[in-house]
Amino acid sequence: MQNNNVEAQHLGGGVVLFKNALKWDWDKVIDLAEEICAREHSSMYTESVDPETGEFAYLNRSGFYFRPESVDEMPRRGSRIHQDDRPEVVEFLTFLEEARDSYLMKYMEMFPIAFKTIWWKIKGHIVSYKPGGYLGPHSDTSSDWAYGVHEPKDQLATRTTVASLIYFNSSVDTEKELDGSNFTAGHHYFNYLDILVKPERGDLLMFPSNYMGAHEVQPVGAGIRYSYLGWYSHGTPNPAVSESVTDPLTEPELAKIATNVYMPYLKRDFVAHLKSKGMTSVDIPGFTFGDEQ
Among candidates 97, 96, 115, which has minimal Cα distance to 105? Predict the structure, then answer.
């Protein structure tokens, strides 16, 4: 494993790409990602036959039948990965989380006022897209609220400010280049900024979670697309709407497996990063060093 400590490429609108940021045995990563996503998928759906049509269908835990193409077009997720206590998984996730936090420092160096919007982080989870899989245009803070219709029970999305994405494998231009570890198409497109990102394994992408960072994952052609998606967030937790955040200083064991975790040393680490670059508060508009922990 290796963090290559690369510099940022600002693509526009707060979308920042760190090319070849990380190095790992990517074949092992893909095997692990597929295992985890397949296991979680099987816990959500059972292969069955729709009694009305007599055709193959997925049966979910609520007893509803779905056409296979409607399920396979959706991304599969490994959302419970941080509860996996296998040493190799813990080692891998620790590396990913420490790496993305280190690149957050570089991101905030470019946009220091972003520091004021981050209190805690949502650890990453694995996302996979099968052939034909896609995710339409959306922002990561969307809640689809409508007055008088419903009040969203899970409002976690409204708290996110900066998204981070690590690509586990690469998009190639033709099916002749497929080798079992890559895929075709499946690009990341930012709708309002007209920015197209071609996934490359080991690249790390950061961007605003709000509507200006609205984006889509274009349909995958052949192969399977794998990535690791997480966010940085702010806001007072509210268990009534499924928001809870663990403090790693008071509950260190719970913080190891929790998904939402406070970042108590964020200012200390950011100040240390800036000082390592020879910067002072004068050089960073909108951010004052002050006395850090």
Answer: 115
Three-class HEC string of 173-238: CCHHHCCCCCEEECCEEECCCCEEECCCCCCEEEEECCHHHCEEECCEEEECEEEEEEEEECCCCC
What span, in angstroms and rounded, lies between the C-alpha atoms of 215 and 137? Answer: 5
Domain chopping of the chain, boundaries:
6-44+85-143+152-283
Six-digit token string for 50: 């729709």
Q: Does CATH place domain 6-44+85-143+152-283 in 3.90.550.10?
A: no
| Residue with the two structure tokens 């190639």 | 172
Left if phi > 0, otherwise alpha if psi is -120 to 50, otherwise beta: which for 185?
left
**With 0-12 CB in 10 A as exposed, 13-18 as middle and 19+ as buried, what is 195?**
middle
* Whole-number Å distance between alpha carbons of 175 and 221: 9
Tokens in use for 108?
A: 């905030």
- Checking DSSP bridges between strand 160-167 and strand 204-208, what pairing results, if any? antiparallel
Local confidence pLDDT in tens for the 293 residues of the chain? 899 999 999 999 999 999 999 999 999 999 999 999 999 999 999 999 999 889 999 999 889 899 888 888 899 999 999 999 999 999 999 999 999 999 999 999 999 999 999 999 999 999 999 999 999 999 999 877 777 766 766 677 889 999 999 999 999 999 999 999 999 999 999 999 999 999 999 999 999 999 999 999 999 999 999 999 999 999 988 887 778 999 999 999 999 999 999 999 999 999 999 999 888 877 787 778 865 44
Radius of gyration of the chain (CA): 20
CA distance 144 to 100: 29
